[in-house]
Amino acid sequence: MAYENIIFQIDGEVAVIKFNRPKALNAINTDVVKELQGVLDEVEANPAIRVVVLTGEGDKAFVAGADIAQMVKLDPLQLRDFSLALHEVGFRMEALPVPFIACVNGFALGGGTEIAMACDFIYASENAKFGQPEINLGIIPGFGGTQRLPRLVGKGMAKELCMTGVIISAQEAKEIGLVNRVFPADKLWEETMKTARLIASKGRFSVMAVKRCIDRGFNMDLRSACAMESDQFGLCMASPDGREGMTAFLEKRKPEFKGELS
Ligand code: CAA
Fold first, then answer.
1. Of all atoms in ligand 1, which is nearest to the CA of residue 114?
2. CB of 111 closer than 6 A to ligand 1?
3. What domains are there in the chain, each with its CATH number?
């Protein structure tokens, strides 16, 4: 599939999805959603991809939200479909076995904060800005802001951000637990790729099991979630990487993970 609004590149074992509408601060419209679906098909079909990084083209924005110029022309049912389609993108990112890292290099507002939250974790530059400013437009978040945000930062903080629409700095976003790490702008890419490659060097099955256990377990009761962890813990031993990791430790050598599932 050819992409016009996204740049999709593969750098070794790391795939990079770059939002590419810099003139509109990478705002997400219905074409971007279709292209995201195509990119996720490619990620799913390519077992050589071990980690996916999302970022924005240009030095100003990651994603400044859903495209207001397009949204204003949609009727309520079309807007609902747009929101549902965006949610499906987020659910698909969560369901795929590979981790997604949001590399937030500027404004991540509305749908921008929301797509970053659908990633497994967020790295940001010192000049990045986060927020759910939909309330200023007389609407509410439509891509998980009222749902993923409270799960990440707690209900009170999520309500404050969604009700006031205030924009917060990367440092504030780190303090409330939205962002994992903040770097100077000129170091963000290097640091993100360093972490992406570190994760890519681990066993494929164990990385997938961590993602599954944390995402699925988060919404389960503790006993059921721990039982799921025990299953995944046992299953890791069934993968060649599980045997290799422990054998390598006992033989006092570095493990050579092959990423094969059986
Ligand atoms: N949709 C469409 N176009 C956008 C946009 C958006 N979300 N954000 C910025 N743009 C466009 C601007 O219209 C402008 O285009 P023109 O040059 O053609 O006029 C261009 O990008 C540059 O933007 P600004 O001139 O406004 O740049 P700035 O530096 O003065 O301000 C900003 C930057 C604070 C991010 C400001 O652009 C802004 O407030 N953008 C809107 C942010 C927002 O409200 N996001 C939420 C959208 S709703 C949503 O996301 C719903 C959901 O949950 C799914």
1. 53
2. yes
3. 6-200 (3.90.226.10), 204-250 (1.10.12)
